[in-house]
TrEMBL record, chains A, B:
<dbReference type="InterPro" id="IPR020845">
    <property type="entry name" value="AMP-binding_CS"/>
</dbReference>
<dbReference type="GO" id="GO:0016874">
    <property type="term" value="F:ligase activity"/>
</dbReference>
<dbReference type="InterPro" id="IPR045851">
    <property type="entry name" value="AMP-bd_C_sf"/>
</dbReference>
<keyword id="KW-0276">Fatty acid metabolism</keyword>
<dbReference type="Pfam" id="PF13193">
    <property type="entry name" value="AMP-binding_C"/>
</dbReference>
<dbReference type="InterPro" id="IPR000873">
    <property type="entry name" value="AMP-dep_synth/lig_dom"/>
</dbReference>
<feature type="domain" description="AMP-binding enzyme C-terminal">
    <location>
        <begin position="447"/>
        <end position="521"/>
    </location>
</feature>
<feature type="domain" description="AMP-dependent synthetase/ligase">
    <location>
        <begin position="17"/>
        <end position="396"/>
    </location>
</feature>
<keyword id="KW-0436">Ligase</keyword>
<comment type="similarity">
    <text>Belongs to the ATP-dependent AMP-binding enzyme family.</text>
</comment>
<protein>
    <submittedName>
        <fullName>Long-chain fatty acid--CoA ligase</fullName>
    </submittedName>
</protein>
<keyword id="KW-0443">Lipid metabolism</keyword>
<dbReference type="InterPro" id="IPR042099">
    <property type="entry name" value="ANL_N_sf"/>
</dbReference>
<dbReference type="Pfam" id="PF00501">
    <property type="entry name" value="AMP-binding"/>
</dbReference>
<dbReference type="InterPro" id="IPR025110">
    <property type="entry name" value="AMP-bd_C"/>
</dbReference>
Length: 538, 538
C-alpha cells in the first residue's frame, strides 16, 4: 500500500522561497574594511533571482559548475542559492589550497565560471590559464585592492547584476546535483563530493533541530566557518530556512573583528573551528554578549577550551563532528539528559565527545577489513562508518581505489572511534595520514613525498603534533641517507617551492629509521607515541 | 548531473533505531488510575520489537491495517512504531466518533485487528461484529474495568507480548504507507488520509525545528492531543527522534490530573486543543512549573486565553495550524523578530494568527474556483491552499467528488484565509460546513440532514456559535413546515438516536427561512452574522 501524499521534491528552491516570502525584513549583514553593509533577505532574494539571470547571460550550461573563491558574504550566499536553484552546480573553491590543488579541482569539476572576491583575486588570477574550462571570472568587490588586469574574461558582479533580469526557480528533481566540495586531506588527488538537492535540504532540517544548532527566527547567526567548507556547516541554508538573521565576517577574519561583530550585531549563534575560538577567547571573555550557542567542529574541541568558554564567556562550546563527505554535520556533543546535574568535569568530558549522531544519521564502529562490529563499551575501537541521506555514496569521477562505501552500503569515514553504550562517538584516532591545522587538512603523505624528493633523504614520515593555536602542526621525521648530512634549514628550503606555506613542517627531527608495521608500512602510531611529549617552538 | 549521496530512505524505522540506540535511559511515563507507570525508551524499544512479532503471530497481512482505539500511552507509542516498522499501516480510530462512523472507517480501511484500551472497551465492543474485516481485538489494560466477554477474537496485549519474539525493522521504501487517519468533519463519509514513511519523517523533522516545537534531549514532552488525532501532532515521532522524555496522560484527561502531571514530571513541552488549556488554566495559574512552550491547535486559540497564560502561567500559548491532511502541523504563530520589542497587545494579536508555514510547506490564497491568487495584504481573502511533502495528495478510495488537489498540484484546505505581506496566515473563516467543538469536528451538514429528517421540519441550517469552554457549539436554525408547530425539545428528542451526544445542538432557534446565496445554497455567513451576539445557555 502506498502513501497518498504530495510528490513535493526536496529542493533548495523551497528554502529560497521560504526566506523570500516570509523573512523579507530579516537582516543580512556583511563586514568589510569600510565597515558593515546592511541588507535583508528581501534584497538578497531579489539579487539572487537576478544572479540566476546573470548565469544565463554568461551562457553557463544547464548543469554547469560555478566556482566560488571568496570569504563569507551576502554575495556568496546569493551564489549558494542562484546556482543550484537554476539547476547548476555550486563548486566552492577553498582559497587556502595549494595552487596545484586549486587548478586540479577546477579542471576536474570543469568549472565554467569562478566568482572571486577582490581581496583574494591575487591568489586566484595566476591560476586562471591553467583552469582550462574557466571562461569567465566575476569579481566581487569586497573592499580588497587587488589590481585587475584588462582581460575579456573578467567582469564585475554588481555590473552584471544590475543588467540582469530575475528568473524563476523551479527545480523538480531532488536527486540533481546542487553543489560540490572537494576534500583535499587524504592521500592522492583531492576528491569531489557532490551534494544533491535532497541531501542538502535534509541536512538543513537536521541542522535546525535543537540537538544540533536549533536556529529559529529569534537567532542572529554568524558562520565563521568558511563558506568554501562544506555548506558552511549547514548554516548557509539553515538560517534562511529558519528566518535567522545572518552576519558574515567578510574578509575581516581577525579575532578582534569577529568578537566585535558578535557584540555589535547581537549574534546569538556562531560556529567555526577550534583555532578561531582559541583566538577569540581574550576578546569575548568578560564581554557582554547575546550568544546562546557556539558550534565548533573540524577538529576535536579541547576540553580546556570549552571549559574556558563556559567559565569566561558563560556558555560551553558545542562540539559537532562530521566531514565534507557528511555534508558535513553528522553528530553533536549535546549534553545528555542523565548528566544535567553532573559535576562540571563530567559534563566537560562528555561535551568533548563527537557525541550522538543527528537524527537521520546512523553510526557504527567495525573492523575496517572484516566489517565485524565492535562493542559499544567506549573501549573497543573500530573504523567509524555512517549512513544516512546526507552521507556521500561515492566521489565524483574518483581516482582508482578511492572507495567511499562498504559492500553493505555504509560510508567509510577513515576515523577510528569508540562508542559508549548510548552510541555516543569518541574519536580515538584520526585517519593515520592526516594532520589538521587550523581546521584545514594537511596530507602527511604528500608532505613525506615532497621531503623524500630531496636527494639526501632516505625516508621521511610526518606526524601531527598538538599545537596550542593550530590544534595540530606537522612534525617531519627524517632519515638521512648513509654518509650524508642534512640540516632542518635545508629540508625546509627544499619544501618551499613544493608545498603551501602553511603546510611547512613546524620542526624537523632526524631519526635513525622510521618504525614500520608488520606489513612494512610506516607506523605513524609508534612515531606519534615517540613524540607524544614533543614541544614545538612556537 | 546527479548528486552522489547515499540512497537512504526516509523511513520510520530510522526514528525507532535512533531512540533505541541513543536514548535507552530516557524516561517514558504513562498515567493511570493507579498512578504513573515508569519505563524508558530502552524498554519501549524492546517491547516494540516484540510487538512486531505479535503482529506476525496474529497473521496480520504484510501491509495490513492495524487499528488502535485508545488513549495516549506507552503502548499506543509501541503501536505507532511496530506497525509501520514492519511494513503495516497504523490506523488510529477516534474514540469520540459516532458508532456508525467508526464502523464505516474500520471497514473502509479494512482493519484486521484493533488494539483497544480496556477503559474504552465498552465503546468499542458493540461495534465489532459490524467491522467485517476485524479478526482480532487486543485489549490493553489501562486500569479500566470494562467487562471482557469470552470471545475467541479477544486477546491480552501483555500476554501476547510476553510470548512474542523481537523482530528486525528494515523498511526500504519511503513511499510505503505508514499510517492512516480519517477526517470526519467534512460532508459525506469520513475520508482517509494515508501518510507515507517519507511524509512522516519529514513532518517529524519539521516539528523538531524551533519555529515549531523545538524538541531536544532537554525536553519532557507531554502530548495531550490524543494519539488518535493525526500523528498526535508529530510529537509521537518527534520526541523519540529528539530524545525528549515522554509523559502520557493515559485515560486521566481531567484538567487537574493533567496539571498535576505537568508539575510532578517536570514537563517542559505540551500540546493540545484550546479547550484543554481553558480547563487547565486555574490549575496551572501561579503554580511553579518547568514548561517552556505550550503548543495549541485544532481550533483558533483565543487571544484572551493566550494572554491569560502569559500573565498567569508565565508563557504565552504557541498556536499551530494544520489539519489531518497536513500530517497535521503546517504553520505556527511564532513571534517574528520585528515584533520582539512590540507591546503585549501587538504580540498577542500576532500570536493569534495561524502564522508562518513551517519550512517545507508553501501556502497561497486563491479564488477557489479560478485559482486566481489573492493579494497578501491581510485584507483580501481566498481559499488557503498548501503544498509540501507532508500534505496529502488524495484521499484513500474516496467517494466521488472528494477531490483534495487542484489541477496545479496544491492541496485545497477548505479554509478561507488572509495573508499579510510576510505570508503569515490569518484564518478568516473556517470551512463553511464545519463546527469545531472541543477540538473535534461536527459536520453541520450531517446535523442538518438529521434535523430535516423530522417530518415537521421544512429546512434547517446549523452554525457554530462561540462557546467559552468548547470553542464552538452547534446552533440549529429550524424552519417549521407551514401549519405545523415544533418545540426545541421535540427536535432534540428526534436527534438523540441519530447523532453522537456531543453533536447535539446547544440550542434550537426557529426562523422563517434560511438565508440563501445567489446560487441558492444556504448562506451560513448570513446566519452566523445574524446570531453573532447569540448567548448560549451554558
Amino acid at each position: 500500500m502506498r502513501g497518498l501524499m504530495q510528490d513535493s521534491p526536496l529542493t533548495i528552491d523551497t528554502i529560497f522561497r521560504h526566506a523570500e516570502q516570509h523573512y523579507g525584513d530579516v537582516p543580512i549583514v556583511t563586514n568589510g574594511p569600510k565597515g558593515v553593509t546592511r541588507s535583508t533577505y528581501g534584497e538578497w532574494a531579489d539579487r539572487t533571482r537576478r544572479l540566476g539571470g546573470v548565469l544565463d547571460t554568461l551562457g553557463i550550461s544547464a548543469d554547469g559548475r560555478v566556482g566560488t573563491f571568496g570569504w563569507n558574504s551576502q554575495r556568496h550566499l546569493e551564489l549558494y542559492f542562484a546556482v543550484p536553484c537554476t539547476g547548476r552546480v555550486l563548486h566552492t573553491l577553498n582559497i587556502r589550497l595549494f595552487p596545484e590543488q586549486l587548478t586540479y579541482i577546477a579542471n576536474h569539476a570543469e568549472d565554467e565560471v569562478v566568482f572571486v572576491d577582490r581581496s583574494v583575486f591575487g591568489l586566484f588570477w595566476p591560476l586562471v590559464d591553467a583552469m582550462t574550462t574557466v571562461r569567465h571570472v566575476v569579481v566581487m568587490e569586497d573592499g580588497g585592492d587587488a589590481e585587475l588586469p584588462d582581460d575579456p574574461r573578467i567582469s564585475d558582479y554588481e555590473t552584471l547584476l544590475a543588467a540582469a533580469s530575475p528568473v524563476e526557480f523551479d527545480v523538480r528533481d531532488e536527486g540533481l546535483a546542487a553543489s560540490m566540495c572537494y576534500t583535499s586531506g587524504t592521500t592522492g588527488n583531492p576528491k569531489g563530493v557532490v551534494y544533491s538537492h535532497r541531501s542538502t535540504v535534509l541536512h538543513t532540517m537536521a541542522a535546525l533541530s535543537p540537538n544540533a544548532f536549533g536556529l529559529s527566527v529569534r537567532d542572529v547567526a554568524m558562520p565563521v566557518v568558511p563558506m568554501f567548507h562544506a555548506n558552511a556547516w549547514g548554516i548557509a541554508q539553515a538560517a534562511p530556512a529558519a528566518g535567522a538573521a545572518l552576519v558574515f565576517p567578510g574578509p575581516m577574519m581577525q579575532p578582534e573583528n569577529l568578537a566585535k561583530l558578535i557584540v555589535d550585531e547581537g549574534v546569538t549563534f556562531t560556529a567555526g573551528v577550534p583555532t578561531i575560538w582559541q583566538g577569540m577567547l581574550p576578546f569575548l571573555a568578560g564581554t557582554p554578549h547575546k550568544l546562546r550557542e557556539i558550534g565548533c567542529g573540524g577538529s576535536a574541541v579541547p576540553k580546556a577550551l570549552s571549559e574556558a568558554y563556559r567559565e569566561q564567556v558563560g556558555i560551553p562550546i558545542l562540539q559537532a563532528w562530521g566531514m565534507t563527505e557528511t555534508s558535513p554535520v553528522a553528530s553533536s556533543g549535546v549534553l545528555p539528559r542523565r548528566l544535567e546535574d553532573a559535576d562540571d568535569d563530567t559534563k566537560a568530558t562528555e561535551r568533548a565527545r563527537a557525541g550522538i549522531p543527528l537524527f537521520g544519521v546512523e553510526a557504527r564502529i567495525v573492523d575496517a577489513d572484516t566489517l565485524e562490529p565492535q562493542a559499544w563499551d567506549d573501549t573497543a575501537t573500530g573504523e567509524l562508518q555512517v549512513r544516512g541521506p546526507w552521507c556521500a555514496k561515492e566521489y565524483y569521477n574518483p581516482d582508482a581505489g578511492a572507495v567511499l562505501s562498504t559492500d553493505d552500503g555504509w560510508m567509510k569515514t577513515g576515523d577510528v572511534a569508540a562508542m559508549d553504550s548510548y552510541g555516543s562517538i569518541r574519536i580515538a584516532d584520526r585517519t593515520k595520514d592526516l594532520i589538521k591545522s587550523g581546521g584545514e587538512w594537511i596530507s602527511s603523505v604528500d608532505l613525506e613525498n615532497a621531503i623524500m624528493s630531496h636527494p639526501k633523504v632516505a625516508e621521511a614520515a610526518v606526524v601531527g603534533i598538538p599545537h596550542p593555536k593550530w590544534d595540530e602542526r606537522p612534525l617531519a621525521c627524517v632519515v638521512v641517507k648513509p654518509g650524508e648530512t642534512l640540516t632542518e634549514e635545508e629540508v625546509l628550503q627544499h619544501l618551499k617551492p613544493l608545498v603551501a606555506k602553511w603546510w611547512m613542517p613546524e620542526a624537523v627531527e632526524f631519526i635513525d629509521e622510521v618504525p614500520k608495521t608488520s606489513v612494512g608500512k610506516f607506523s605513524k602510531k609508534d612515531l606519534r607515541a615517540k613524540f607524544a611529549e614533543y614541544e614545538l617552538k612556537s
